[in-house]
Amino acid sequence: MSAAMDTESTYSGYSHYSGHSKKAHRQGRDRHKSPRSKDGSRSEKSVTIQTPPAEPLLGNDASRAEEGQDDNWGETTTAITGTSEHSISQEDIARISKDLEDSVGLDCKRYLGLTVAAVLGLLVFLTPIAFILLPQILWRDDLEPCGTVCEGLFISVAFKLLILLIGTWALFFRQPKADLPRVFVFRVFLLVLIFLFVFSYWLFYGVRILDSKDTNYQGIVQYAVSLVDALLFIHYLAIVLLELRQLQPMFAVKVVRSTDGESRYYSLGHLSIQRAALVVLENYYRDFTVYNPALLTASKSRAAKHMAGLKVYNVDGNNASGQSRAMIAAAARRRDSSHNELYYEEADHERRVRKRRARLVVAVEEAFTHIKRLQAEEQQKAPGEMMDPREAAQAIFPSMARALQKYLRTTRQQQYHSMESILQHLSFCITNNMTPKAFLERYLNPGPTLQYDRDRWFSKQWTLVSEEAVTSGLQDGVVFVLKCLDFSLVVNVKKIPFIKLSEEFIDPKSHKFVLRLQSETSV
């Protein structure tokens, strides 16, 4: 256990890999960056998609802090605690207040919609019951006796209302996945249709039954049954419009991440642009590898190094245009040889990755072999001396810590794996009797975004930029952009072409062949 504590102290770079004051300054600078559209086109619309407000807003500030660090950050970095000061301009304050007002407006809009839907649903379920009870309360003595058929209708109304209640709960009472910028057109259409339908039934009931005090109680009950039947048909219409209509694939969308060009293809049905954007985001967190800005710094540093190596001397007082031409000519000559530098840099990087990967695999296999031996020995001891999975993970972690740290630094994944998360994953693998290969899968192969800790990748706010109205349906050639703080997703929509198949019949008896022998052959 002492070895585990010593290695944990030397491995503190996982949790303190940047100074507090520098990190706070960068966080303050990045926090007030807003994803704005730089285009001057008036036809372009920009709206916002927000996830439920219970989640924290965390960006990739830690990944930015890694860009300027050397390869030995785990050994040389010192954690400095203290306070940091940064200034905020009047424009930043105005933008923050605007964001707060927008969030309050979205919350009010969401709760207002839920309130209206709840009130309307309560009115729908109470209306048939009120149709049956009001005559019994107001003019009970004048009503005709309810026979066997009338009493059977009571059972029919009760079970139909129960079925309608269960179907409504399954279709509408769901946890919202996101706050869309505009209303859902079909949902609003259904709410308006239900309101008009119930209002017309109440109007007819008030004029023909309440005013005249109709004594035919069986007819009144049948009127309530017809209302419940119509509500069931409206519920069926809601299932068709909200669920079944979008199931048939009609469009193929290509999603490209703007920073590294990673792309995926998805098939979508008849959806509005805002709902298609929601589907794209759900699939993005599942299918795309986690965004790692540290992998993009190599090309930038290489370009900066090439430009830094160019020096222009003004010896005889030439003008600036001559210097610029000399700069361009020198850059062209350097560009001719830059591909060789790129080739050798990539080859050297791949060699170092393979080398450190081999060391990591050997270290992990030896550590798991040790924990298996410990388990065999511990079975002969008293129950009080047995090790739980957490203690076993802490016991074998020091033997693989340095190799894992070097591999994560080489592949630039260190900002996504803290020491605590590695220990939790190791104890999980020990608990479920998983192999070393299963443990290493998370670190050797970059996984989807959802695989990592939520505070490493989660972005609360996405901005949807589209030239078309976000409530309009998908069409061939539509392009929209989903922006967050660090990158954007460009979505290109293509309609699946109409496919025409023809049939050709082949008679099985036509499969007849003749073997032709020649005298020159050896057959």
Describe the protein.
- By secondary structure, the chain is of the alpha+beta class.
- Among the domains are: 94-246, no CATH class; 249-292 and 458-495, Tumour Suppressor Smad4 (Sandwich); 294-302 and 335-445, no CATH class.
- The protein is 56% helix and 7% strand.
- It has 15 helices and 6 strands.
- A 6-stranded antiparallel β-sheet has the order 1-4-5-6-2-3, covered by helices on one side.
- Helix 1 (2-10) runs parallel beside helix 12 (389-410).
- The longest helix is centred in the last third of the chain and has 59 residues, at 320-378.
- Mean pLDDT is 75; it is low at 1-44, 51-96 and 100-104.
Any key phrases for this structure?
disordered N terminus, membrane, 7% strand
Write the layout of secondary structure elements.
Blueprint: H1 2-10, H2 20-31, E1 45-50, H3 61-65, H4 73-76, H5 90-138, H6 148-172, H7 185-210, H8 217-244, E2 251-257, E3 263-268, H9 273-287, H10 297-308, H11 320-378, H12 389-410, H13 419-431, H14 436-444, H15 454-457, E4 461-466, E5 479-483, E6 488-495
Antiparallel strand pairs: 1-4, 2-3, 2-6, 4-5, 5-6
